[in-house]
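Honest question from a wet-lab person: if I give you the sequences of every part of a complex, can you actually get the arrangement of the whole thing, not just the pieces? Trying it with mine:
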Amino acid sequence: MAQNKQGSETVASAEKGKMTLFRDDRQEDLGAILFSVLIVAIIVVLTMK
Amino acid sequence: MNEQGLIDKLPRERFIEKLPRALPGLLLIVATTVAIRLWVEPWMANAVVFEQKGWLVKVTHLNYILLGIIMGMAYRNVIFGGKLPAVFADGFRLSRLFIKTGIILLGSLYTVQAIVKLGAMAIFLIGGFVILSIVMVLWLGKVFRMERSMTGVMANACSICGVSAAVATAPAVEAKPAHVAYAIATILGFGILTMFISPFLGHALGLNDLQYGAWVGTGILNSGQVLAACLAFNPNVAPGTAVSVGEIWNIMRVISIPFAVFIVTVWYWAGHDNPQRQQKTLTALLVEKFPVFVLGFLGMVLLTSIGAFGDVGIKGGPPASATIKMIRDWMQWIFGIGLVGLGGYIDLKELSQAGGAPFKVGILVGVTKYVLALIVVLVIRDYLIEI
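Yes, you can. This is the full assembly:
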């Protein structure tokens, strides 16, 4: 049955925890914000005259 | 205590503790992206097929984005025989982190003025399509005699953005895991199809980036699939390109998740035996379900608008600054990595399990929305606002 399948972007998405390394969506969102800040900071330093 | 209760009581492993386990999978994804962008794509652009240089790119429209997704799908479905090995699985679980990070960085393509200019039209069109899809699913759910929980989940899966909306709606309408699973399988199965055919259709119909981005951003449901369809049409990341248009429309839809959950919840409990049980207010849903990465995107828009990264490179204005150019270059790599990972999460066997009434409803609504979005964009093409 579909509900027994785990670990894909398709059926198992019902089990959110399986799709992300984070605890939940909110944590993943915050992780993405922090990752973006880090990337922008690196780029700003690299392109600083 | 049930099994889930016991699991909840176990100490949770922190992200940072899991990260080392993700490195092998992440390395595989990064190596695949590097190989595609540095070797496969240039080879395809120069290869002579049917006595024509670059035939593979001109005719198939395959670029690093579609190649990455295909390679990710091949890892899971062909090379690893239907399941990602444990050693690589955690790395693939980082794919959405990369996609969300890329979308936040996309904020550097816009200014506040551009968002305000586009906002009214996008809200009007996206809002119209969200409401139309919800109403259509609720009606078809009745016609096909679907369970109300299943109908509620399908309504938001079809109207907003597949996975996140289905999962966000499930607890509010007492949906079973199977309801969510079928809704997601149907929606993403349809989305994968549209992700591959949209670039061909867009080129065949002679759409420009603005028209194509508006169509795909409205007609395709899943954020990752909108991104892939836009970059497959035009891999450039700059103001006015397909991805800059498609993603702003997509973000407008993602923001509507809490509102759509509220509407469907009200509908569900209005027809329930015990309507008093509906607890959550719109405010509570906004706090709980709002996709906060959108705030990161808005932060980038604000920083770009005040000139924190230099000139943006808008058509007719001064060229983009070195910082902006590097952000765009890195964005392409980040999206490439995220979408190889997304491909690895597409299980073709699981997609084939979608069926029955939810499948019929999903396909009917999906096709209607996809075709109607194209018609609307073609009708209003002269009024679409360029950013």
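Two things worth pointing out. The radius of gyration of chain B is 21 Å. Chain B has one domain: 96-383.
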